[in-house]
Design brief:
about 200 residues, alpha/beta, three-stranded antiparallel sheet, 9 helices, about 55% helix, about 15% strand, globular, binds 2'-deoxycytidine-5'-monophosphate
Length: about 200
Amino acid sequence: MIVAIDGPAGAGKSTVARALAAALGFTYLDSGAMYRSVALAVRERDGRPAEVARAADIGVGDRVVLDGRDVTEAIRAPEVSEVASRVAADPGVREALVAKQRALLQDGDYVAEGRDIGTVVAPDAEVKVFLTASPKERARRRAAELGGDPGTVLADQTLRDERDRSRAHSPLEAAPGAVELDTTGLSVDQVVARIVELVEAARR
Ligand code: DC
């Protein structure tokens, strides 16, 4: 079974997807970590982003490994977030990473998290969730997680949201059939419990 969790930054996707995967005994796939890894590689190497993406060997288990190097922490730097949002708008990069993601999702049970899992990567996913939260709440969570001033985080987030939503290729939008879940004011456990119900309903 595939559970697709999409939505904007700070909606709680990573925390929820990780906890949900643990609760269900499914494997967690963080597709954003793959875009971030390509962004890091693009900053360090010459070459067109699409070629860098095709050539990159990216492992996204407990640690994120790029061509044999542990980049789990490095990909969370703010400069990498910025470049990731840019490379994610490149159709060639998306094509390369979607192919890698589909290959991973071929076997086993997954909670896959990103922006286009339900729309593009796994449109046949049995459960699709579009997580949202108010912009202010999302900025507050990101600032708490990464450090930094909530006002600056909100400004950066607004820019990246706009780029993710308005790009021509695979813009951020809820998939047909996705359940929209606003996590503002909800605990992680409450959100996970709600999605577990959706998984149980899909199994029946
Ligand atoms: O979820 P995140 O912040 O780690 O994602 C990093 C960037 O990659 C962000 O700009 C959105 C983009 N992304 C995407 O376009 N498609 C995905 N499936 C996952 C992430």
